[in-house]
Amino acid sequence: MRLDIVTIFPEYLEPLNVSLVGKARARGQLDVRIHDLREWTHDRHNTVDDTPYGGGPGMVMKPEPWGEALDSIIESGSGSGDSGDGSADASGDGFDGAEAARPVLVVPTPSGKPFTQQLAVELSEKPWLVFTPARYEGIDRRVIEEYGDRLDVREVSIGDYVLAGGEAPVLVMVEAIARLLPGVLGNAESHRDDSFAPGAMADLLEGPVYTKPPQWRGRGIPDVLLSGHHGKIARWRRDEAFRRTVENRPDLIHRADPAAFDKKDRET
Ligand code: 6GU
After folding, report:
1. Does residue 171's CB lie within 6 angstroms of at least one atom of ligand 1?
2. Fewest CB within 10 A of the end CB: N or C in the chain?
3. In terms of domains, do 99 and 172 share one?
4. Is residue 110 annotated as part of the catalytic site, yes or no?
5. For every one of its 268 residues, what pLDDT tens digit does the chain have, with 9 covering 90 and above?
């Protein structure tokens, strides 16, 4: 998978060199290219913002640098049949060019649709994503319109709170997407029953986990986990997941399939 990120704070994205995403890049499973938006400015001060039409507080990101940046990035992936850097099929997934000629454009904004596990799965299946994290009050609307005519554009929010810019949301989204790529997580099973994985425990949150030692500061392990009885362990895990979901995310219970619940749940 190829990811391009256009930002005025390239250093904000340094965590992408670390841990799971950093290792996926080093292994060639992820081709991440970080671009400084100011490289597509032409004035002495590398201006990327201006005052809003209609008045109001804050500044708005000017359309011209974004237009030049996105045209240049999109152009780099079309025509030649590879990513444009001589490294055909850097993702190693058999994908090589033609279908990547058009990236999906992911626009982080608190006004976007919610970023969910379902969207992470959908985006993880794309060969090429371009992220446009903005600062200030956001990007001139005409940029989103312009590329909406040519590309699949997704305006996405990571939650109901306001951040100072889209860089932290990009870190969040890239990690959620990268761990779903084939071969990136050590064990392909390990995201099968993640909280929020489709079909996982009928959409319940994950329950508590334990490891050695068997006693720590006078606290033991639930007996059932030491019983070796796989049926009882599965039932216990499901009950704990249900309990935690009722406590922390009752909204998920009402959304879940009633067939997933039984008499014991209704007594909780
Ligand atoms: Cl994607 N951007 C900003 N600036 N704030 C947010 C957000 C995005 N998602 C939640 N809050």
Report:
1. no
2. C
3. yes
4. yes
5. 999 999 999 999 999 999 999 999 999 999 999 999 999 999 999 999 999 999 999 999 999 999 999 999 999 997 644 443 444 454 444 444 445 699 999 999 999 999 999 999 999 999 999 999 998 899 999 999 999 999 999 999 999 999 999 999 999 999 999 999 999 997 655 676 677 776 557 689 999 999 999 999 999 999 999 999 999 999 999 999 999 999 999 999 988 777 777 777 877 6
pTM (two decimals): 0.89
114 is written with which tokens? 């919610």
Residue 158 labelled as part of a binding site: yes
**Does one domain contain both 90 and 181?**
yes
From the CA of 160, give the closest atom in ligand 1.
10
Known catalytic residue at 137: yes
Partners of 5 in the β-ladder = 34, 131
Report in angstroms the alpha-carbon separations of 207 from 231, 250, 256. Answer: 16, 15, 17
Say if residues 253 and 245 touch (Cβ distance below 8 Å).
yes
Q: Is the predicted ipTM greater than 0.95, yes or no? A: yes
Verify that 133 and 226 share a domain, yes or no: no
Q: Which of the following is catalytic: 33, 102, 179, 249?
A: 179
Q: Which atom of ligand 1 is nearest to the CA of 108?
A: 1
Whether 163 lines ligand 1, by a CB cut-off of 6 Å, is yes
